[in-house]
Design brief:
With 125 residues, this protein is mainly beta. The chain is built from no helices and eleven strands. The N and C termini lie far apart (37 Å).
């Protein structure tokens, strides 16, 4: 599975961005898809995810209500819609894919076998 993330950029606080993650080699229907981010000097942290089949969605407390994860099965692409962005959302954002069936691990980066290259989101105050 190869993942290609895109859509990052510079935006003012309160603005919006939509990240995309295009997958090849396997369909999203058979994969859990996650979004993670890593700010300078910090560890990689979970942002959002959906389980294979797209029937369950998960968000970190810091983005709940502002970010929405979705998928376009026809294009084998996942999206992360980010609204009401804050300077603390500034980070390199990664999409990831995995096959774990253990729900409790959906927020753990170790549960994902495939990673995109990251796309930079910068939110100015």
């Amino acid at each position: 599975v190869q993942l290609q993330a895109s859509g990052g950029g510079l935006v003012q606080a309160g603005g919006s961005l939509r990240l995309s993650c295009a997958a090849s080699g396997r369909t999203f229907n058979s994969l859990n898809m996650g979004w993670f981010r890593q700010a300078p000097g910090k560890e990689r942290e979970f942002v959002a995810a959906f389980r294979r089949g797209g029937v369950a969605f998960y968000y970190s407390d810091s983005v709940k209500g502002r970010f929405t994860v979705s998928r376009d099965s026809a294009k084998n692409t996942a999206h992360l819609q980010m609204n009401s962005l804050k300077p603390e959302d500034t980070a390199l954002y990664y999409c990831a894919a995995g096959t774990t069936q253990i729900t409790s691990t959906i927020r753990n980066p170790l549960a994902y076998s495939y990673w995109g290259q990251g796309t930079l989101v910068t939110v100015s105050s």
